[in-house]
């Protein structure tokens, strides 16, 4: 029997783009792990940073399953969950306003403000950051974390010997590690544009100190309320934006004293607004927009 075609919607949040399947109306793909690399391929597929399934939930308005471009499943995506919230409101699965979405991080609450039939502004309660090394996880020597057990401005075993690019971008090789339900490592530098991310990103992502791999962020502080950042995402490579990553950068800025509790993060795909006051939950606000709809010929 020939597999039935899949109807999808391509969406983006600050340039972080995924292929979304509304499984309220469509059958759940039989093999999303195998489908994700094919449908996300930017030359031979639809193109995107991965595949997101929007499913019914017994705990929330909808459930989100996210697959990276390499087929690996991730716990959460801040830009992706904003798009999921837009979709469930735009398709009538939930009313505008507060919307709950079940993710690998747990149930998140979002506030959806429609700006048109294909675009919304969405605020997300990203939950509290996880800062204990075992929770991130990061396997570092006992002597590396700070006195409170957090990995904040700590020596990075993956960056030991200075390399020419350190000077080019003004790198501070110390790392700050945060989990927003998925693992992140944050580095600061003078000029993010001069970081050879395509070479450094995969080396850091797969370093043995990160047992579940890691999302890598380089950050340039413009002032205490604004940063510029670039991201290498675990399983997807260089992306235009990363919502959980921007949240981690907000947390890292507060922990290291480089930035304040309210932050605008400038990413290649646009700006995200973050807030974290040193305890409690991180909030993130940004756009969610439909790009086009289409049909994939087979499951």
Summary?
This protein is an alpha+beta fold. Helices cover about 15% and strands about 40% of the residues.
CATH hierarchy class name of the largest domain: Alpha Beta
Q: Do you know the CATH architecture of the largest domain?
A: Roll
Indicate the low-confidence ranges by residue numbers. Answer: none
What structural class do you assign from the helix and strand content?
alpha+beta
Count of separate DSSP helical elements: 5
Q: Tell me the number of structural domains.
A: 2
CATH superfamily of the largest domain: Diaminopimelate Epimerase, Chain A, domain 1
Give me the CATH fold name of the largest domain: Diaminopimelate Epimerase, Chain A, domain 1
Query: Would you count the extended β strands for me?
Result: 16
Basic shape: globular
N-to-C SSE series? EEHEEEHEEEHEEHEEEHEEE
Query: Averaged pLDDT, please?
Result: 95
β-sheet strand percentage: 35-45%
What does this molecule look like?
The radius of gyration is 19 Å and the shape is globular. The model has no long low-confidence stretch (mean pLDDT 95). The protein contains five helices and 16 strands.
Tag the structure with descriptive keywords.
Diaminopimelate Epimerase, Chain A, domain 1, globular, about 300 residues, about 15% helix, alpha+beta, 16 strands, 2 domains
């Amino acid at each position: 029997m020939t597999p039935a075609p899949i109807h999808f919607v391509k969406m983006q949040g600050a340039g972080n783009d995924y292929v979304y399947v509304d499984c309220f109306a469509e059958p759940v793909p039989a093999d999303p792990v195998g489908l994700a690399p094919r449908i996300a391929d930017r030359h031979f597929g639809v193109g995107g940073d991965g595949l997101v399934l929007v499913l019914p939930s017994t705990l929330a308005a909808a459930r989100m399953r996210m697959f990276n471009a390499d087929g690996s499943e991730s716990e959460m995506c801040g830009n992706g969950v904003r798009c999921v919230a837009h979709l469930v409101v735009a398709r009538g699965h939930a009313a505008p306003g507060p919307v709950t979405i079940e993710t690998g991080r747990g149930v998140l609450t979002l506030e959806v403000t429609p700006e048109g039939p294909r675009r919304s502004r969405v605020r997300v309660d990203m939950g509290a950051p996880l800062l204990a090394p075992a929770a991130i996880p990061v396997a570092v020597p006992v002597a590396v974390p700070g006195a409170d057990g957090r990995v904040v401005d700590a020596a990075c075993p993956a960056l030991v010997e200075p390399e020419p690019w350190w000077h080019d971008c003004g790198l501070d090789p110390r790392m700050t590690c945060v989990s927003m339900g998925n693992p992140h490592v944050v580095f600061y530098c003078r000029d993010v544009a001069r970081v050879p991310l395509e070479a450094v990103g995969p080396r850091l992502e797969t370093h043995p100190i990160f047992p579940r791999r890691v999302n890598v962020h380089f950050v340039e502080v413009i002032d205490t309320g604004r940063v510029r950042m670039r991201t290498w995402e675990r399983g997807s490579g260089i992306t235009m934006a990363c919502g959980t990553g921007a949240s981690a950068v907000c947390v890292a800025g507060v922990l290291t004293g480089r930035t304040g509790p309210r932050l605008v993060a400038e990413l290649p795909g646009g700006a995200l607004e973050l807030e974290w006051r040193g305890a409690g939950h991180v909030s993130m606000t940004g756009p969610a927009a439909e790009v086009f709809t289409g049909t994939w010929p087979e499951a």
